[in-house]
Write a structure and sequence with these properties.
This protein is α+β, with helices and mostly antiparallel strands. It is 29% helix and 21% strand. It has one domain: Trna Endonuclease, Chain: A, domain 1 (3-Layer(aba) Sandwich), CATH 3.40.1350. Helix 1 (15-21) packs antiparallel against helix 2 and helix 2 (30-39) packs across helix 4. Residues 16-127 form the SseB protein N-terminal domain.
């Protein structure tokens, strides 16, 4: 995981942001951040709206500093920067666990791109989360 740099944001708006805010402290446990992400409602943005239960959407994918594709995920709808909404105006809520379960093997993800409460997970990190974290009803 790499820390995103950005303008300081106001106080954390939910549990996930509280975990992200304390992620750099010496006694911070990265597992707490991952578990909070998996169990939180997070938001993706898309140029497509939801038409019905079986709708497929194409979420916004950005390029990281190395040019690799990363799925843009937001911890709260207010964390979506206006520049992203111009490209993908539909903000869609889902569980973090659903994001991890459905993300492709070649895709990383970035939580709150450009914000103080954010970080990036490379494709290997996503694969590790898929491997190491199972839903309680799957164990």
């Amino acid at each position: 995981m790499t820390e995103q740099t950005g303008i300081a944001d106001p106080a954390p708006l939910n549990d996930l942001e509280e975990k992200l805010a304390t992620g750099n402290e010496p006694d911070a446990n990265p597992v707490d951040v991952i578990l909070s992400f998996l169990n939180s409602e997070v938001y993706i943005i898309s140029s497509d709206g939801i038409e019905g239960e079986d709708s497929q959407v194409e979420p916004l994918v950005l390029a990281n500093s190395e040019g690799a594709p990363v799925l843009a995920v937001f911890s709260h709808p207010t964390r979506v920067d206006q520049q992203y909404l111009e490209a993908a105006p539909n903000v869609l809520g889902t569980q973090g666990a659903a994001i991890i379960a459905n993300i492709g093997e070649e895709l990383g993800l970035v939580i709150n791109p450009g914000a103080a409460y954010g970080f990036e997970i490379n494709p290997e990190g996503v694969a590790n989360i898929k491997r190491d974290f199972k839903r309680a009803d799957e164990q």
